[in-house]
Task: structure prediction
Amino acid sequence: MSIWGSLIGGMVGLSLGGPFGMLLGSIIGGKISRTKFGAKNFGTFAQPQQVFALSLIVLSAKLSKADGQVSKEELIAVRDKLKIPKNEINSVGKIFNKAKEESSGYEPYAQQIAQIYKNNLNVLEEVINILFYIAEADGNISQSESNMIQRISQIFGLSQSQFNSIRESRKSSDKLNPYIVLESKPEEDLQTIRKKYLKLSKEHHPDILISKGVPKEVIEESKKKMRAINSAWDQIQKLKTN
Result:
């Protein structure tokens, strides 16, 4: 079953509350509770995969206008990366356009996402990872887009080293700095770095992320992150043993 099916149907909106609930409520014309966002608003109808997908749609909409323009490439990237089926394009498009047009910023949404996934930082890291993908779609990440993604990561509670690791992992294996990817320093010994490698490998394994709410539709970027982690470890082993 598609993760997009009930995003507009009201179930997610009615159970989420907060800014996401208000956004969906304004689209379907329902009366959504204005209760402060929090875990208690993450109701029984809001499946983790759907909340993750909704988060990407709204933040992608905000990101797409961060540099003052919405490019065709970015819109295509949103559609393709999130694997939105043709029969759901119109419904998802309504959410994207509403989020893009409304006057409120991205911060309230980022805060609600941070609250929902407060015990799953690796899921929040994956949101940042995919936002980078969206920003890259037109061939260039503007400074305003980069600043916005970094600010979202701060709202999520990610450290600077975690943010740097995600950004560095976007590079090809021959260009990335392996120490940044593994959140390490060149002066650290191999055993210390290995512990960080094993920790990151476990946290970013696709199966782990899927179990925590990352939809299968967007898991390909997680696989790329894992490849970057493994490549970084291989490079460091060669550097340390030669």
